[in-house]
# Entry
Amino acid sequence: METIEWHHKFHAPFRIVACLMLSLALNSCGGGGKDASPPPPPPPIQSQATSCIPGTPIQNINPMDYFPTAAQKVVYRGSTTNINGVVSQYHNAVSVNPIPLPAGQGTAAVYTSSRYDYLSTNVMPSFPNENLLVTSAGAQMVGLSAGAPAPPFIDLAVFPLEIGKTCTQAFGNLSLKDIDGDGLPEKFAIHITTLIRGISPVTVPAGSFPNSLNLSVQTNQQVTLSSNGRMVVATSSSEQWRAGQMGLVKEIYHESATYNGATQTNNHTDTLESRYDVLTPVGSLNGYSDMVYDPYTNQLYASMSPQDPYAAVIDLIDPYSLQVTSKILIPFPIGANPTNSFAGIPPVMRPMAISTDGSRLYVGLNEHGFIVPVDVKTKTTLTPFSTGVSPAGNILTPYKLKVAPLDPYAICVSLMVDTIAERINQVAIYRNGVKLPVSSPSFVSPVEIEMNGSGNTLFGVVSPGAANGIYDVSDFVTMNINAAGIGGVVTVPGLLLTPGALSTSPVQLRFSGTNLYASDGSRINPATSAVTVKFDMAAIFGGNSVVPYDVSIDPINNRILYLSNRGVLSANLATLKFQSEAYFAETRLDARSLVFIGNNRFAYIYGIGAGRIVISKENSLYPQ
# Structure
């Protein structure tokens, strides 16, 4: 009977001369050598041998499940222990990008690995980026070092899977790469042994995986340096756990290298922190300005501006089928506002809010100064109401909306007027469409708003630099709500500091339990208006290049989600301890409206002005 073997080379277990070796011979990786002309092409392999000792077959196992080639991005939380016992943490981000192959040659993907210091933006120089290629071409899966078609093709797992199956490979006289900096490739002799240990459970920060493939790899390398003829001897061991449809979820790695009588060791453990699948846009739908999620109906409500000059619509989107299931017509009440000069112009639909009980949806029509209530159950619009006009007769534009937690008929509205002659930024309360008599004083910028759980206290964020598009320093405002409207107002200047030099988005607030959570990573005690804990997303996501956009609560897993231009990450709600991250394939501009929609999925809008809704796949952000 014909046996089909599958071979795979992953980024982690086999490293053709890690920097640990080089540190014994050089002061730093990739330096210290003389200038030289480009090296000649590597000669053919002088000796190569592969042999396997059979084991006990594992039934009903698809080898491709453990070595995925589908597009994804995986982040590992790891730690390295040096010979002195000093432990340093890091993140290892691995991208899997499919590449096309001719018909009949299977599938392929490029694995790109980048290791970062845990609390900095620096790529760790001792672990440079790697590009590795895996293919499934009928009879084998091979790995190509650095993405180039050069030997050796290292088989780290030979299929079909058999418990106890051991495969040994030997390579001799390989000219692979220049490691001593003299411009000439070194001579390598490599001996690799792979053992399939079996199927076993493993638990990592990303979760528990009961049926993981457990295998170990032992590697011995002898490298003759072209600069002085001396030899570097290195041994390494790697124990892996791979989950079906996931790939590598855990690796324990040990390496020892000896050169000129000196020996150094390196130990580290990689555990799966999060998995990022390429986020799936909702078809080709775009032009959205805001979005809310209704957990009772499991629907997204998204506002957009259609071509109809006398009406707009709300799209109801199923977050699983990614289809627009129905639409709600939002008619524009022409002439209802005596100062309206925009008749016949489609309203730019910006703010939305939904009541806690899911019964009432509110939609703000900016330029027209109206708010339209919607009965969620019947999907019909109710009587719209005007937000009013300023002393100079300008429309009070609804900027942000927030429904009172215990009263679906009461809504807090952040209002603004921005003209050359008049600038107003204030907050007002409307109950049953009627504006309460007392509004807040005017602030220096539009007010981002949030309410506490009982709806008697309003919180706001204003930014002195907003006129110039800078939100690096923001003031925190507390306002009491009473029968007349807005009561006492207390401002704490400069309480919120957004990380990084690119703070071009206002800080958002979310209330949960007894605390406020800000998109800049701050947790605020409402009673004292003080920051009690600060989650440093800049340290994890990229220093000064991070722009925080929004924040959302995941009540199921007791965590908080942060949206930035670099991706979404989560932290424990009680401790703000970092848990997991989901990187974006590309930087997102002007992202907003982050919502948690269950099953470790989330949705957001990106794009300046009218944007595009993006919904993540299931389990894109794993809880701890």
In short: Confidence is low (pLDDT under 50) at residues 1-47, 118-132, 137-156, 336-346. Residues 362 and 373 are 5 Å apart (CA to CA).
